[in-house]
């Protein structure tokens, strides 16, 4: 059974076995990552015999590969503060039970000076979870840790604490450190989110260094602000393709990050900016997201945006991507794809959707195609759908076919459009 299947089935026992016994470090690392992704939410529990925390603690201490240790610590973080403190307690010999948060933060801060980089990483991660600012100075000092993995965890901790006093030190390291640490620092500045933090990101978004520009546009997608939209839209015309594509990914991410009270404004601003952008720079990356991304939020937003900005030269390509997305496993993504297709009539779309429905390719896909036909269809759709509903043996498709026909002036049939 593949790791993907084990993840889908939430097979904690087999994943733990891979983490403990596989001779392949990449498999052990991936098993740790999956175990972290399967950590229960606050209102969920897992069976005691499926609890992987002990295995993750052992891997974080004893695995031969640093990347497996790092992945195990990140996984422990996802199991919550108790799991992290259990690891720190075992490796340091300190009892962290029944200690006040501020005092616990001070004890964890001592771990930042430990000889073992894994303990320093775990201490930084734990401090970020606690969020006490009485150890801010100790964390900031660790931005100069000799181990890059520790510097990354410190940056994440400062992002969680969101204290503006960390901005000067983060800004300095943003120009000095190696790439993966710079990315975490940029994310931290975005999460702190003050005007001073934004200014640092804006400054490097226009830097001569392509790497810095890419880091900036990547981080700006976390801000969820109108100001970030304008900067990212400008980056769509960057000389470097990697910066342009990162900017589009960030714009899509920004739709998810925008606060509820500003989401409509941000959404309208993004559409306005993308409509003014060069079509290849705007449409092609969205199609690529639908084709390659496994992130649900990205796919939803890409499907929603395509129907509002694609026209003329790239409408056919946009239709192709959206038609394939009608079969998406995520119901909301497939609905967005259907609604966008309804906005992209022309280029033989009606004929293609009718052929799709009549091919009986996929129930969910055909349901969404029928919805679109109910929006854009004409005489040809009425004629062929009338025959379809009489001939199909699929009750669900027959019902949705009647619904589409009712909207086209054919049979009268009530029903939910997209369910």
From TrEMBL:
It comes from the Archaea. GO terms for molecular function: oxidoreductase activity. SMART domains: EZ_HEAT (SM00567). Gene3D superfamilies: Leucine-rich Repeat Variant. SUPFAM superfamilies: ARM repeat. PANTHER family: DEOXYHYPUSINE HYDROXYLASE (PTHR12697:SF5), PBS LYASE HEAT-LIKE PROTEIN (PTHR12697). This is HEAT repeat domain-containing protein.
